[in-house]
Amino acid sequence: MYESSVIDYLEKLALLKFTDEEKKRIESEIGKIVELFSELVNVEGLDIVEPLYHVVEIELPLRDDEPLNGIDTNHELLSGNAVLENGYVKAPKTVGE
What is the pTM of this model? Predict the structure, then answer.
Protein backbone atom coordinates (compact mmCIF):
# COMPACT_ATOMS: atom_id res chain seq x y z
CA MET A 1 0.00 0.00 0.00
CA TYR A 2 2.35 2.71 1.24
CA GLU A 3 6.08 2.71 1.06
CA SER A 4 7.85 1.97 4.29
CA SER A 5 9.58 5.33 3.94
CA VAL A 6 6.28 7.07 4.81
CA ILE A 7 5.94 5.01 7.99
CA ASP A 8 9.62 5.62 8.80
CA TYR A 9 9.08 9.36 8.31
CA LEU A 10 6.07 9.36 10.66
CA GLU A 11 8.09 7.35 13.16
CA LYS A 12 10.88 9.93 13.04
CA LEU A 13 8.51 12.89 13.39
CA ALA A 14 6.72 11.32 16.36
CA LEU A 15 10.02 10.35 18.02
CA LEU A 16 8.83 6.76 18.28
CA LYS A 17 10.18 3.35 17.30
CA PHE A 18 7.65 0.93 15.77
CA THR A 19 8.00 -2.83 15.57
CA ASP A 20 7.47 -4.51 12.19
CA GLU A 21 4.02 -5.63 13.35
CA GLU A 22 3.08 -2.08 14.35
CA LYS A 23 4.33 -0.75 11.01
CA LYS A 24 2.09 -3.21 9.13
CA ARG A 25 -0.91 -2.19 11.26
CA ILE A 26 -0.20 1.52 10.76
CA GLU A 27 0.18 0.99 7.02
CA SER A 28 -3.23 -0.69 6.93
CA GLU A 29 -4.84 2.08 9.02
CA ILE A 30 -3.40 4.82 6.81
CA GLY A 31 -4.81 3.00 3.79
CA LYS A 32 -8.27 2.99 5.37
CA ILE A 33 -8.02 6.70 6.19
CA VAL A 34 -7.03 7.56 2.62
CA GLU A 35 -9.93 5.46 1.29
CA LEU A 36 -12.41 7.35 3.48
CA PHE A 37 -11.07 10.73 2.36
CA SER A 38 -11.18 9.66 -1.29
CA GLU A 39 -14.88 8.86 -0.85
CA LEU A 40 -15.49 12.47 0.19
CA VAL A 41 -14.47 13.59 -3.30
CA ASN A 42 -17.62 11.92 -4.65
CA VAL A 43 -20.02 13.59 -2.18
CA GLU A 44 -22.03 16.34 -3.82
CA GLY A 45 -23.06 19.59 -2.15
CA LEU A 46 -20.27 19.79 0.43
CA ASP A 47 -19.53 23.36 -0.62
CA ILE A 48 -22.94 24.57 0.65
CA VAL A 49 -22.74 22.91 4.10
CA GLU A 50 -21.46 24.88 7.10
CA PRO A 51 -18.50 23.27 8.91
CA LEU A 52 -19.49 21.35 12.03
CA TYR A 53 -17.28 21.99 15.01
CA HIS A 54 -19.17 19.80 17.46
CA VAL A 55 -22.14 17.48 17.00
CA VAL A 56 -23.93 18.81 20.08
CA GLU A 57 -23.73 22.42 21.23
CA ILE A 58 -22.13 22.01 24.66
CA GLU A 59 -19.94 24.02 26.93
CA LEU A 60 -17.25 22.12 28.80
CA PRO A 61 -16.52 23.11 32.39
CA LEU A 62 -13.04 24.36 33.15
CA ARG A 63 -11.17 23.45 36.29
CA ASP A 64 -9.35 25.96 38.47
CA ASP A 65 -5.61 26.18 37.96
CA GLU A 66 -3.68 24.67 40.84
CA PRO A 67 0.01 25.34 41.40
CA LEU A 68 2.39 22.38 41.33
CA ASN A 69 4.72 21.60 44.20
CA GLY A 70 7.75 21.90 41.97
CA ILE A 71 9.11 22.02 38.46
CA ASP A 72 10.24 18.86 36.69
CA THR A 73 13.85 20.02 36.31
CA ASN A 74 15.07 16.43 35.97
CA HIS A 75 12.66 15.83 33.07
CA GLU A 76 11.21 12.77 34.76
CA LEU A 77 8.00 13.11 32.75
CA LEU A 78 9.96 12.85 29.49
CA SER A 79 12.47 10.23 30.60
CA GLY A 80 11.02 7.27 28.70
CA ASN A 81 9.57 9.07 25.69
CA ALA A 82 11.90 11.73 24.39
CA VAL A 83 15.48 12.29 23.37
CA LEU A 84 16.99 14.88 25.68
CA GLU A 85 20.07 16.87 24.77
CA ASN A 86 21.46 19.42 27.24
CA GLY A 87 18.10 19.52 29.02
CA TYR A 88 16.10 20.16 25.83
CA VAL A 89 13.88 17.81 23.84
CA LYS A 90 15.62 16.95 20.59
CA ALA A 91 13.23 16.65 17.66
CA PRO A 92 13.76 16.10 13.95
CA LYS A 93 13.98 19.07 11.66
CA THR A 94 10.53 19.66 10.14
CA VAL A 95 11.21 22.73 7.99
CA GLY A 96 13.06 22.43 4.70
CA GLU A 97 16.28 24.27 4.03
Answer: 0.46
Tell me whether residue 16 is in a domain.
yes
pLDDT per residue as tens digits for the range 12-34 = 888 888 889 998 999 899 889 98
Q: Is residue 81 part of a domain?
A: yes
Q: How far apart are the first and last CA of the chain?
A: 29
Helix and strand numbers (H, E) in the chain are: 2, 2
**Inside any domain, residue 10:** yes
Tell me the average confidence (pLDDT) per consecutive run of 10 residues in the chain, 97 residues long.
76 86 90 89 83 78 84 72 75 73
Taking the C-alpha atoms of residue 53 and residue 12, their distance in angstroms, rounded to an integer, is 31
Residues of the domain holding 32: 1-43+72-89
Q: Say how many domains are in the chain.
A: 1
Segment holding 85, helix H or strand E: strand 83-85
